Amino acid sequence: MTDIFTKLKSFLIENQTPSQTVKKNATWLFFGQIGSRLFRATIVIYAARLLGAEHWGIFSYALGIATFLTSFSDIGVNALLTKEASRHPELKDRYLSTAFFVKLTLLAIIVAIVLLLFPYLTNAPEAARIMPILIFVFVFDTLRDLGSSIARALQKMQIEALTQIFTNFLIALLGFLFLMNSKDTHALALAYALGSGLGLLSIIYTLRDHFRRIGSFFTLSLVKPILSTAWPFGLMGLMGTVNLNTDIVMLGWLRTPAEVGYYAAAQKIVLLLYVLPTLLATSLFPLLSRLKSTNPDRANRVLGKSVMFVLFFAALFAVFGIIFAEPLILLIFGEAYAPSTLTFQILMATLLIVYPSTLLGNAIFAYDYQKSFVKFVIISILGNTGFNLLLIPSFGIAGAAASTLLTQIIVNWLMWHKLKTLNGFTILPSLKEYLSMKLF
After folding, report:
1. HSE toward the beta carbon, residue 387, CA cutoff 13 A
2. What is the pLDDT of residues 288-300, one digit of tens each?
């Protein structure tokens, strides 16, 4: 028994071989994401049922606005920090220190602008009241992600995973406590902000050896290279934020708060299922960054098998979700959210697009072709906005979901084509391996 415990501890804590490290990191990220999202899901379900579709819609709208605006402060510094610290471990403290102050400056500018503009972003007094609180949720989350990027560079994803679980546990616990005392969106917003702030403090404490002297390693000469190199990395995150939050924001402008609540309920379940490819992509990123120059053929094989792996689960989840959409919605959110059913079915189809594109996007970064995302982001923003303007007035929340699906299909096709052009990537060899397997 002791020997088994020792081996398990060694597997979960130590980095031994490239293969074991990827598996270890994927395991930690899986439990971290699943655990943290389950905690978050409990408070989401409770709040949605307690507040009702209209007030839950107002909270989701304010949250979407805050997320959308503060996302512009994340210009890819985290991804660059992970990449450069993986390749040059001796420079990680310099990159961390400089990146921290770059991000802090950008956050201060964005928050100041948002606090000045937020009264004009909504006609709903309730949304305007909680939006300043929710902005700081994403300030804390953004700074915590900076610490997570160091953990990724060190390939110690257990730090990121445990911090995520701790943060979302606090949000759920405080959410239940605050909502029991005051059944309104302001209480929920305070719970989100306080839990996120404590989560930031936890990762600073865990990585205190790196953060303790953060001011000592600031390197002015790195500011320009970080800004000029990082912004293409931020485009992928911006693209994801646009696709996830533009629908909520535009529904808030064009439809009713209740419809926003219906859409947000359906979207929350789908976002939970987006975890799998993100976990695998994050675990593979450091490995692909090294293999792309030392063994490109192996890098392509690893990527191909990974894409086939996630596509299998995407198809499985999508079919199940589409068939059992109505009972799932009613079970989780209750009869009041029955109008979410069709929207949920359309969003489930996005798994077939998001799962492979998550891996492809990280591969493009690993191969240093991140500037390709300029075109992808422009098309994503214009496409999603245009489709929303066309479809939401006539089809409501189902139109918003269809807009997201259509935009993702277009952008994903462009990503596949770009990667194939750059390094000849194809999943055909991996597909043949899967088809030739003897399943019975």
Report:
1. 24
2. 666 666 666 776 6
In terms of Cβ atoms closer than 10 Å to its own Cβ (0-12, 13-18, 19+), residue 287 is: buried
Q: Contact, 296 vs 418, CB < 8 A?
A: no
Lowest-confidence region among 42-56, 170-184, 236-250, 422-436 = 422-436
Amino acid in position 126: E
CA distance 305 to 290: 18
User: Helix, strand, or coil here: 311?
Assistant: helix
Which are the contacts of 342, defined by CB distance < 8 A and separation ≥ 6? 325, 398, 401
Q: How many CB atoms lie within 10 A of CB 375?
A: 13
In whole angstroms, what separates CA 407 from the centre of its chain? Answer: 18
DSSP character for 120?
G
54 within 8 A of 258, measured Cβ to Cβ: yes
Cα–Cα dist 35/37, whole Å: 6
Task: Give 393's contacts (C-beta < 8 A, 6+ positions apart).
Answer: 254, 399
Number of H helices, E strands in the chain: 17, 0
Q: Per residue in 327-367, pLDDT tens?
A: 999 999 989 999 999 999 999 999 999 888 888 877 777 66
Tokens coding 280: 């695998």
| Contact assessment for residue 151 and residue 82, using Cβ atoms and an 8 Å cutoff | no
Specify whether the CB–CB gap between 277 and 354 falls below 8 A.
yes
Structure tokens at 206: 């865990």
CB 376 within 8 A of CB 412: no
- Residue 6 — φ and ψ, nearest 5°? -65, -45
Give the integer Cα–Cα distance in Å for 10 and 357.
33
Distance, C-alpha 248 to centroid of its chain: 16
- The tens digit of pLDDT for each residue in 208-226 reads 887 777 767 777 777 777 7
State the Cα–Cα distance between residues 27 and 14, nearest whole angstrom.
13
- Angle between helix 77-87 and 125-153 (nearest 10): 10
Query: With the CA atoms of 235, 237, 242 and 247 taken in that order, what torsion angle do they form, in degrees rounded to the nearest 10?
Result: 160
Torsion of CA 16, 21, 27, 33, to 10 degrees: 130
User: What is the phi-psi region of residue 438: left when phi exceeds 0, alpha when psi lies from -120 to 50, beta otherwise?
Assistant: beta
